[in-house]
Design a protein that fits this description.
The chain is globular, with a radius of gyration of 18 Å. Strands 1, 2, 3, 4, 5, 6, 7, 8, 9, 10, 11 and 12 form a twelve-stranded mixed β-sheet that branches. It has five helices and twelve strands. With about 230 residues, it is mainly beta. The longest helix has 8 residues. It is about 15% helix and about 55% strand.
């Protein structure tokens, strides 16, 4: 297994489960379930994030209202809806933490390749924004396609990047509602999930870039050292 595939997509979330667990799929006899977790922002607002977890990690079960603190990856997959392929995103849990650390409850570190020309724009209040789509390699020759949004000087930096450039970034996963127009001119409320970028860097080779030293994500090792948990 390529060690870069383990290091280039790391997520830490801690929040309240706000929906029942629903069976998603099965892989080699192991069942996986989906539910939503409410993760508070420092502002007091909350992001409602989709989570996928194996029955093995759920143990005796996780119910609505429980707190989940976990480490994992932000993954994507395609789902066919009304004859069209739609990019779906989920936090794939790899480890469940036994207690709640006193850290930012929503952190992500990614490294990958720009796979679509970044879109730079300004808001009516002259705030700079750039949208980017990052291809993040995963084990077994798979890739996750992660949308992200950068602000201010990060947006200006992103606007100069090209398809194929290698980037690394840190930030948080956010949920955002928007209105989508339907063929009959009605509107439906949809939810988008994306990475809100707080720090970003471009680099040439993985061998010359240490993502762990560049970006500080709460790790399982740090949690064990701080709390003495056996994960």
């Amino acid at each position: 297994m390529n060690i870069n595939c383990e290091k280039n997509n790391k997520v830490y979330i801690c929040g309240k489960i706000v929906s029942p667990a629903v069976f998603s799929h099965e892989v080699f006899g192991e069942g996986f379930y989906e539910f939503f977790v409410e993760v508070k922002r420092l502002s007091g607002q909350a992001d409602i994030l989709p989570v996928t977890i194996s029955e093995r990690l759920m143990g005796d079960g996780m119910k609505e209202g429980d707190t989940l603190c976990a480490l994992g990856q932000f993954r994507s997959y395609n789902k066919l809806e009304n004859g069209k392929s739609r990019l779906m995103l989920t936090v794939f849990v790899r480890e469940v933490l036994a207690s709640q650390p006193s850290k930012n409850p929503n952190s992500i570190v990614l490294s990958g390749y720009i796979c679509k020309p970044p879109v730079y724009r300004t808001t009516p209040f002259n705030r700079e924004i750039a949208d980017l789509l990052i291809a993040v390699n995963r084990s077994y020759n798979k890739s996750d396609y992660i949308p992200a949004i950068a602000w201010g000087r990060n947006a200006r930096f992103v606007s100069n990047l090209e398809v194929g450039d290698k980037v690394a970034l840190s930030g948080r996963i956010q949920s955002r509602e928007y209105q989508k127009k339907q063929p009959d001119d009605s509107f439906v409320t949809m939810t988008a999930y994306e990475v809100s970028v707080s720090k970003l860097a471009a680099f040439d080779e993985y061998s010359d870039f240490d993502i762990d030293s560049e970006f500080d994500l709460y790790s399982a090792a740090a949690h064990r050292e701080e709390h003495g948990d056996k994960l």
